[in-house]
């Protein structure tokens, strides 16, 4: 609880910096590896706009951290994020353990399918400015996440919605809550038994919303597909998804190309 509070504090200060200082950690254009800062104002095919600033950086494993993408304007940023990474990894492994058991498999099955100790945790800090024209603007358009499983906290401005029973509902959480979102690689590993949660983020007319999703994802060279134990035997268990090297999966999804 206290750690969540501290993470929100240290993670907010970065966005108060002048633009040129934020751009010092700019993300390389069109990179499949998303680390860095980007300010995004986009229009989709249906004329809807999205508007948000994002900062991405890995927080686990230590060997894959690039500290140059971490804000250094807040003295506690590093310590708090390193501690948060350890806690999120524990939580993630616990939940993947329960989800594996729910499939009738051993506790490590989903974690191993996602890459075991090579699984990476990517922090995204999202800054949604106040926005008066709400009908045209989404913070995040409807989507499912590409990675395995997502853990999200946000400041006190609500806006996350989930698609359930054919309608959008507000996701309720309090200050100490972490929202857990099943993402595409768990759907694929479970051969469709766990569905990815479709979600979106709205904006507030007067207040700034900040959210901190952490994405647990395979490393780019890891191959993910339906777990072999789930697709053995008869036709009912036929694989519904092709295995993909995560780099290729991400490329196809980011470019809206066909997959299965
Ligand atoms: O800000 C939010 O609540 C949602 C963000 C999100 O879904 C994403 O970045 O994938
Ligand atoms: Fe998402």
Report on this structure:
The N and C termini lie far apart (41 Å). The protein has one domain: Jelly Rolls, CATH 2.60.120. It contains six helices and 13 strands. The model has no long low-confidence stretch (mean pLDDT 91). The strands form three sheets. Strands 1, 2, 3, 4, 6, 9 and 11 form a seven-stranded mixed sheet that branches. It has helices spanning 2-13, 19-23, 77-102, 109-114, 184-189, 246-254, and strands spanning 36-43, 49-60, 120-128, 137-138, 140-143, 149-154, 160-164, 167-170, 179-182, 199-201, 209-217, 223-224, 244-245. Helix 1 packs across helix 3. The longest helix is centred in the middle third of the chain and has 26 residues, at 77-102. By secondary structure, it is of the alpha+beta class. Pfam families: 2OG-FeII_Oxy, DIOX_N.
Name of the top-level CATH class: Mainly Beta
Multimeric state: single chain
Give me the Rg, rounded.
18 Å
Helix amount, in percent? 10-25%
The CATH homologous superfamily is termed B-lactam Antibiotic, Isopenicillin N Synthase, Chain
Q: List unreliable stretches of 5+ residues.
A: none
N-to-C CA distance? 41 Å
Characterize the main sheet. Answer: 7 strands, mixed
Mean pLDDT: 91
Q: Give the topology string: H per helix, E per strand.
A: HHEEHHEEEEEEEHEEEEH
What binds here, in terms of ligands, is: 2-oxoglutaric acid, fe (ii) ion
CATH architecture: Sandwich
What is the count of helical runs?
6
Number of domains: 1
InterPro entries: DIOX_N, IPNS-like_FE2OG_OXY, IPNS-like_sf, Oxoglu/Fe-dep_dioxygenase_dom, Plant_2OG-oxidoreductases
Protein name: Fe2OG dioxygenase domain-containing protein
Family: Belongs to the iron/ascorbate-dependent oxidoreductase family.
GO molecular function, one term: oxidoreductase activity
């Amino acid at each position: 609880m206290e750690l969540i509070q501290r993470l929100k504090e240290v993670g907010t200060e970065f966005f108060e910096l002048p633009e040129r200082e934020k751009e010092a950690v700019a993300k390389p254009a069109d990179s499949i590896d998303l680390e860095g800062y980007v300010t995004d104002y986009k229009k989709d095919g249906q004329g809807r706009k999205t508007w948000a600033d994002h900062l991405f950086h890995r927080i686990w494993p230590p060997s894959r951290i690039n500290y140059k993408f971490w804000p250094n304007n807040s003295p506690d940023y590093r310590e708090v994020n390193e501690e948060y990474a350890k806690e999120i990894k524990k939580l993630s492994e616990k939940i993947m353990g329960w989800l594996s058991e729910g499939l009738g498999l051993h506790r490590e099955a989903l974690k191993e399918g996602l890459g075991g100790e090579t699984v990476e945790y990517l922090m995204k800090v999202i800054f949604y400015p106040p926005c008066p024209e709400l009908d045209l603007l989404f913070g995040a358009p409807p989507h499912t996440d590409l990675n395995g499983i997502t853990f999200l906290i946000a400041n006190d401005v609500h806006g996350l919605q989930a698609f359930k029973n054919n309608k959008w509902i507000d996701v309720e959480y309090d200050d100490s809550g972490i929202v857990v979102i099943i993402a595409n690689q768990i759907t694929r590993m479970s051969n469709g038994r766990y569905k990815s949660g479709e979600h979106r983020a709205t904006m507030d007319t007067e207040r700034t919303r900040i959210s901190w999703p952490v994405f647990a994802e395979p490393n780019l060279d890891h191959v993910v597909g339906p777990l072999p134990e789930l697709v053995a035997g008869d036709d009912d268990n036929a694989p519904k998804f092709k295995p993909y090297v995560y780099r290729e999966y991400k490329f196809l999804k980011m470019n809206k190309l066909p997959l299965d």
